[in-house]
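Annotated sample (chain length 274).
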Amino acid sequence: MDPHGISAAIYAKRRRLSVLVISKGNGALAKTGKIENYYGFAKPISGQELYENGLAQAKNLGIELIEDEVVSIQLEEKFEIETVNSHYQAKSVILATGTNRMVPPIKGIKEFEGKGVSYCAVCDAFFYKNKEVAVLGNGNYAIHEMEQLKPVAKEVTILTNGETIVENRNIGDIKVESKKVREFRGDNKIQEVEFEDNTIKPVQGVFVALGTASSSDLARKIGARIENNRIVVNENMETTVPGLFACGDCTGGLLQISKAVYEGAVAGLAVLKS
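Output written by the structure step:
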């Protein structure tokens, strides 16, 4: 969890709201060596130390922190949040997981975006009814995308691209191809995958789901407006979906801690009005 998420949680909690923070663990902040431009620190502070200070502050306020991975958010009467290990409901949701979309340097992957390469199974599964598709990834997020495609597609194959499939999920009879991918090929649309050993597999669609779901991934699936992989928000950090807020790097602009903390504060205060 990065500072914008903790900032949002702190401001919401101080308004006497019930707050739950779901995070897979350390974010980009904890991996930063030294921070020299953040107000209030005469000497450089490590990202890990600032991260731990933020967690301690949240815990002191009684904010519940859960370590888990969010794979899906849907809106029914309330927001339905699906994680690897559980399921939660909320009146409002603040997305603060960053924008990082992992795209491997595989030839053809960028060229076929919108022409068979997709980043959202919930959005695009319908277009692949009775077709052979693949999911590129090896973690919980990839398995979630596979589960969205399985009832629709004729065949779903998980392409791990040389990685090991996550061990804590049951994938049933789904095919897993662990060979390294060399290239995605086709004419106007994607038609096949070529592996490093020169073997070829026909596919009509590839869903990229590497790593964990970013804020943009989750927002896109629920129908929020996205521009240039940035979530569109108003002055209250609310997306085009009422009750869904976003803050930090995922909204674009200056990639600085001070900006992220500010946006988290705005979102945390605004949820009271939603």
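Annotation: The domain at 117-208 is CATH 3.50.50.60 (FAD/NAD(P)-binding domain).
Annotation: DSSP finds six helices and 17 strands in the chain.
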